[in-house]
Recover the amino acids of this structure.
């Protein structure tokens, strides 16, 4: 058995050397990337200032290839797909580093060895706090004073690999072996050092080891197992890292570079070590200000010379000013008259004089003449030890991947301190990226329900076709979310919705596990479902009561989704965060297009026998109100929308929809 393990280990080591996607040929670094579905691929990195067009790659079969002459040094890189629609990390990079936007860049070091260029993975540094696992079943042992063996319990797994800093986090290089009773074994030949790791189950699920000697933050909201290998009295040992005792005594340090990071925060007026592990700015009245960002909002925490609650009742304002890519009006001055270095369109204000009686902030939009117009939008804020303010991208009209600037202002008795003077640039994470896991083309011109529905008569519905006509649905998957991109034949905005579209109302029902409901979440659509659904999603051009994420048992979780539209491309992107989904049986979906009506049942525009100014026409009176209000839907291959939507029984039952398979 030991010989078999050793032989398999050597085969895996050789396979790593032969299949590397980054190699040296002569004096050039050769980059290869397997992505056959791309139309174009460019190489971007620190060597070309992250240009999206400086280094095109050529197609060679299913691979994309290019070569670069580089000097010795450490470089980061990524692949740019189809002109920037998707950015992908190299799955076979020698190493990885946080890209600052919730993903990762490939990283490698180019070195000279015997006058020849060689590629090496960057050295592993343990900067995170090490958490010792005091409750664990022993699963590490040394074999033949040579191999480190790790046991992992996963009886339902079909196959398991171990990935870690010892194999450049490759998900398919180091296979585990079934040792019976649900246990899997990884056999590693390691030199003394500290290593991080995870297990990859069935080629898709990255799982931490609950029996690891210790844990560290993995940089993506989870944790890695960590262990140290050392020699003692000539014998190989393995266990928790020895560095843990020092690190337990130190607080989370500020990053060496002032980078705005994604951190988990809570708007409670308390400043945690995690909330401090991001960009920090120093001032006079404002001692420190910490700025972070997530997928949905920016975070600002303000530290003063005394607890912020001691300023309650005084003539003090804490404010954040922002711009936005598409702001309609802008000011240059704060409410106190200070001229800012850039025009701003929005103002988040906390007034300490009134905080005791009105514990909430106030949101303003610029009027364009240095005055401010009060808005009804609500944002989270808190005053206790510190001041904390959350800045939702949604109310600024900022989309994923866009840039904006903020200024932090403290005004005492009308005198402003602006921190920093030049403002702070924030780039929102690009959520509209990932692997395409499903794509559905739909018939053009079928936004007529089962064939008889016609448009209302008001000019707002011009061009009287295509507004509810789904032409294509693409589903992406990235580390954080599933993205449903729904393309329509037409998209107009006559009623000036803040999201850029007025007419479309999208309902999505997801079936991801056993159980659920076969009726709609609320009355209105007049359909039912062949297979039970578990999650309901609803979006329209107004993000107040027309955005919903709900479970089948009625629990609504607004933060589970974000969405944005691209009116030029006539696409609505709905981003569903994975952490709110329990996926056990794959993903099936019902995707419905309806007409948005602020006064309709569940915001659905009714259909009457004949079209009127505001209602659609063509409704069958003999259906006895059991015909659907659905105008377009995606149906499985081989099925017809008309037949499915006409499957209602007059006076008895609604039409029964059939799901499409997403994953």
């Amino acid at each position: 058995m030991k010989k078999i393990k050793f032989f398999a280990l050597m085969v895996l080591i050789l396979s790593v050397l032969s299949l590397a996607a980054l190699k040296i040929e002569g004096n050039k670094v050769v980059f290869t990337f397997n992505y056959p579905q791309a139309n174009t691929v460019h190489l971007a990195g620190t060597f070309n200032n992250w240009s999206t067009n400086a280094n095109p790659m050529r197609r060679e079969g299913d691979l994309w290839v290019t070569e670069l002459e580089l000097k010795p040094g450490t470089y980061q890189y990524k692949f740019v797909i189809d002109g920037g629609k998707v950015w992908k990390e190299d799955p076979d990079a020698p190493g990885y580093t946080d890209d600052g936007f919730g993903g990762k860049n490939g990283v490698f070091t180019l070195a000279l060895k015997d006058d020849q260029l060689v590629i090496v993975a960057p050295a592993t540094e343990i900067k995170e706090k090490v958490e010792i696992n005091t409750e664990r079943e022993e699963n590490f042992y040394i074999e033949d004073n040579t191999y480190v063996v790790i046991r992992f319990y996963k009886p339902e797994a079909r196959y398991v690999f171990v990935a870690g800093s010892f194999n450049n986090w490759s998900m398919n290089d180091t296979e585990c072996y079934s040792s019976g009773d649900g246990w899997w074994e990884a056999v590693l030949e390691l030199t003394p050092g500290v290593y991080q790791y995870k297990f990859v189950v069935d080629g898709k699920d990255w799982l931490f080891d609950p029996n690891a000697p210790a844990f560290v933050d993995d940089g993506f909201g989870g944790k890695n197992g960590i262990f140290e290998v050392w020699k003692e009295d000539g014998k190989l040992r393995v266990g928790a890292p020895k560095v843990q005792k020092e690190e337990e005594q130190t607080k989370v340090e500020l990053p060496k570079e002032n980078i705005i990071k994604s951190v988990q925060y809570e708007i409670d007026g308390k400043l945690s070590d995690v909330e401090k592990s991001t960009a920090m700015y120093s001032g006079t009245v404002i001692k420190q200000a910490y700025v972070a960002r997530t997928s949905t909002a920016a975070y600002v925490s303000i530290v003063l010379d005394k607890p912020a609650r001691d300023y309650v009742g005084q003539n003090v304002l804490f404010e954040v000013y922002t711009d936005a890519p598409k702001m309609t009006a802008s000011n240059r001055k704060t409410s106190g008259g200070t001229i800012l270095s850039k025009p701003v369109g929005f103002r988040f204000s906390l007034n300490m004089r009134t905080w005791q009686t009105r514990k909430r902030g106030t949101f303003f939009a610029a009027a364009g003449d240095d005055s401010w117009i009060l808005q009804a939008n609500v944002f989270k804020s808190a005053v206790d030890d510190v001041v904390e303010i959350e800045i939702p991208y949604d109310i600024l009209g900022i989309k994923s991947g866009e840039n904006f600037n903020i200024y932090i202002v403290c005004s005492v008795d009308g005198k402003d301190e602006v921190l920093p003077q030049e403002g702070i640039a924030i780039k929102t994470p690009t959520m509209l990226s990932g692997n395409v896991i499903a794509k559905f083309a739909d018939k053009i011109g079928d936004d007529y329900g089962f064939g008889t529905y016609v448009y209302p008569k008001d000019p707002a519905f011009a061009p009287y076709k295509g507004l509810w006509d789904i032409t294509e649905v693409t589903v992406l998957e990235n580390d954080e979310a599933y993205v449903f991109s729904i393309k329509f034949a037409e998209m107009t905005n006559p009623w000036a919705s803040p999201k850029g579209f007025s007419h479309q109302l999208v309902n999505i029902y997801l079936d991801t596990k056993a159980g659920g409901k076969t009726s709609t979440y609320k009355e209105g659509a007049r359909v039912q479902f062949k297979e039970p659904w578990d999650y309901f999603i609803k979006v329209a051009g107004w993000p107040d009561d027309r955005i919903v994420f709900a479970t089948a048992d009625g629990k609504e979780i607004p933060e589970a989704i974000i969405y944005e539209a691209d009116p030029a491309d006539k696409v609505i992107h709905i981003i569903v965060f994975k952490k709110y989904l329990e996926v056990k049986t794959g993903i099936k979906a019902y995707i419905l297009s309806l007409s948005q009506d602020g006064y309709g049942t569940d915001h659905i525009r009714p259909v009457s026998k004949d079209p009127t100014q505001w209602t659609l026409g063509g409704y069958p009176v003999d259906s006895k109100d059991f015909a659907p209000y659905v105008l377009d839907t995606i149906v499985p291959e081989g099925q017809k929308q008309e037949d499915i939507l006409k499957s209602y029984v007059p006076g008895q039952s609604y039409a029964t929809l059939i799901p499409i398979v997403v994953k």
